[in-house]
Amino acid sequence: VMGIVDVERRLSLMRSHTATHLLLAAAIDVLGKHVWQSGAQKDVFKNRLDITHYKPLTIEEIKKIEEKVNTYVLSNIDVKIYEMPRAKAEGTYGIRIYQGGVVPGKNVRLVNIGDINVQACGGLHVNKTGEIGLIKILKTSRIQDGVIRIEFTCGLSSLRYIQNKEEILMEAAKILNSQEENLIKNIGKIKEEIEKYKIENKQLWRKYLTKLVNEIIQQPKITYSDIKVYIPEFDELTREQMIEIGGEILKKHMEAIVIVVNKKAEAIEYVVMLNDEISKRGFDSSAIAKIIAEKLEGKSGGEKTIAQGFGRKIDNEIFQSIICEVRNYVINKLK
Predict the structure, then answer these.
(1) What are phi and psi for residue 275, nearest 5 degrees?
(2) What angle do CA 231, 233, 239 make, to 5 degrees?
(3) How far, CA to CA in Å, does 246 sit from each of 1, 118, 286?
(4) Cα-to-chain-centroid distance, residue 246
(5) I need a labelling partner for 31 at 20 to 30 A (CA). Which of 66, 111, 313, 324 fits?
(6) Poorest-confidence range of 73-82, 210-219, 249-258, 308-317?
(7) Considering only the top CATH level, what class is 217-334?
């Protein structure tokens, strides 16, 4: 049997392995000796180290860990690998040598990086820390109580990550016609303008809504006894706007059922709303929504006072049949 070792891949994994040991040492130095390795995964492009810690890492803590670990790299420390009797190893370095897990045997293989980090480890490593290259923390996250995951790259993968970020920054500056150093300031200004337009848009919507509701209540689709059913139709409304329209109509007519229909490009969605007063008389928004869904070959769901649904686009004939079905529902409830 013959095998061929992918040298570049092997070197990348060796850098990642030694980088993991250094990152753990940096985390212990910055966060405290309570930190313990909970898990790790090494790869060619991205690695992860899970550590025990009682809270998510702050930006400042991440920066300090990153600076500390790269100081170890730049110091070009010798990575020494040797075997030692288990009892002597534990007596010399303590149980912290088992950060990666307890290994079997009377002797243990130790990886000693300038006494910064000493671990029992059977993996391949670089000869000097300078061979690792830049170590860049990509992301940290809390994966469970007391465990923080640190995702990182090293070597050329770190360089490519930074280059990609630079490209994004340059493209953003180009889109906003801004110098890179003024980008945050200009984004802040744009955000302020957007917030201003949102307020203005909300004020315009409120004015339009008042006028719109006054027009809708003049033309109920169904009137039976004291119950009025309003079915306004719109194009491309948001769900929030649909509910707001329904709510405003119900404020003006307590004994009403509102079905707000929103016709999108390829489908129809709707919201059914009614007040508690007529809900107590047996009317149910979810039941009405289900009737409509059956006609639209769609789905619905909700509660007694508010429900929603969607279905395929319909023609006028089907729409009239929906009105007829809703009318029958109202009549049956009032019998």
Answers:
(1) -85, 165
(2) 95
(3) 75, 68, 15
(4) 31
(5) 111
(6) 308-317
(7) alpha beta
Residues 6+ apart with CB under 8 A from 71: none
State how far the Cα of 58 lies from the Cα of 117, in Å rounded to an integer: 24
Residue 107 has a CB neighbour count (10 Å cut-off) of 14
Distance of CA 228 to the CA centre of its chain: 43
Residues in the chain: 335
Residue 283 structure tokens: 């009317």
Residue 315 burial (CB count, 10 A)? 7
Residues 6+ apart with CB under 8 A from 318: 295, 296
Rounded to whole angstroms, the Cα distance separating 88 from 121 reads 16
Task: Please write the tens of the pLDDT for every residue from 250-264.
Answer: 998 888 999 999 887
- The first and second tokens of residue 131, run together, are 């061979």
265: confidence class by pLDDT, cuts 50, 70, 90: low
In terms of CATH, what superfamily is 7-175? Threonyl-trna Synthetase; Chain A, domain 2 (3.30.980.10)
